[in-house]
Design brief:
The protein folds into two domains: about 15-105, no CATH class; about 105-145 and about 155-255, no CATH class. The protein contains ten helices and no strands. It has helices spanning about 15-45, 50-55, 70-100, 105-145, 155-175, 175-185, 190-195, 200-215, 220-255, 270. Helix 4 (about 105-145) runs antiparallel to helix 5 (about 155-175), helix 4 (about 105-145) packs antiparallel against helix 9 (about 220-255) and helix 6 (about 175-185) packs parallel to helix 9. The termini are far apart.
């Protein structure tokens, strides 16, 4: 179905918005599907499963993880392929979301949102790295130490990978806090004063969230609480910078629009 020509006054009718949304969703789904196919090949031939199993190897009584259903290895590979596919398709999906909403944003808002997206990618990777290299080994050490003299571990691959992927993705997502605050500040929905006023509430919320997301041991919980508190303070700073720039632009605009009271050059008043 061909798209309608744009409205000459710059506004898009409601049906055109729906058509635009339909195409954005379509290309996002196509990107995820293509990414999943590529993810299947990556998981199958580039050792992604071994990378995720490596932290638990010191705790295995046998050489490999166990499975109790002949179809489990295939579905485990498929689930990992989907996760890798979503990660690979994320730039395309983010672009489609940006292309749909960007016409409604002002130029100054776009200057904040675009760098925030790149910053968010870095923070997500930092959160995943923290979870993989520090939190996951500590969590396994804590959890596998209970009743070890009476119980023998028989770790099932599906359960283990579900545990690991939830932990990694959770850390990656909670590290997006500064990005969310930057975008909300650019849109005028959050202010630095509000963030400072709600700091105590934020500490309680971060503690509860960290307790729910982490496996339950004190070390991994603190490893999430600490960075999140730092990120919250960073969010306040970034929000302050955004509002300071916004205030400076508004003040400069007011000065530009203020009527001039000085006599024009060359007039009798200007010559004294």
């Amino acid at each position: 179905m061909p798209r309608r020509p744009p409205n000459p006054i710059g506004e898009m009718p409601f049906l055109d918005h729906l058509e635009e949304l339909r195409w954005r969703l379509f290309w996002s789904v196509v990107a995820v599907a293509v990414g999943t196919v590529a993810g299947f090949l990556i998981v199958q031939y580039f050792g992604v499963l071994e990378l995720l199993i490596r932290p638990v190897r010191p705790f295995l009584t046998g050489e490999e993880l166990m499975f109790f259903n002949p179809a489990t290895p295939f579905f485990v590979t498929l689930k990992l392929a989907l996760v890798v596919g979503i990660i690979l398709a994320a730039p395309v999906v983010v672009y489609q979301v940006w292309a749909f909403f960007s016409p409604a944003l002002e130029a100054e808002e776009k200057k904040v949102v675009v760098p925030s997206l790149y910053f968010g990618l870095f923070l997500f990777c930092a959160g995943v790295a923290l979870a993989y290299f520090w939190v996951l080994p500590l969590a396994l050490l804590f959890l596998m130490g209970f009743q070890s003299e009476f119980l023998q571990s028989a770790i099932e691959v599906g359960e283990y990978l579900g545990f690991v992927t939830r932990l990694l993705v959770a850390f990656g997502l909670v590290f997006e806090l500064p990005v969310v605050v930057m975008i909300l500040s650019a849109l005028g929905l959050v202010t630095p004063a509000f963030l400072k006023e709600k700091r105590r509430h934020a500490i309680v919320a971060i503690t509860i969230l960290a307790s729910l997301v982490t496996p339950g041991d004190l070390a991994s919980t603190l490893l999430m609480i600490g960075p999140m508190l730092i990120l919250y303070e960073v969010s306040i700073f970034l929000s302050s910078v955004i509002y300071r720039r916004k205030w400076e632009r508004e003040r400069a605009e007011e000065e530009r629009l203020k009527p001039r009271t000085d006599p024009p050059p060359g007039s009798v008043e200007a010559q004294g």
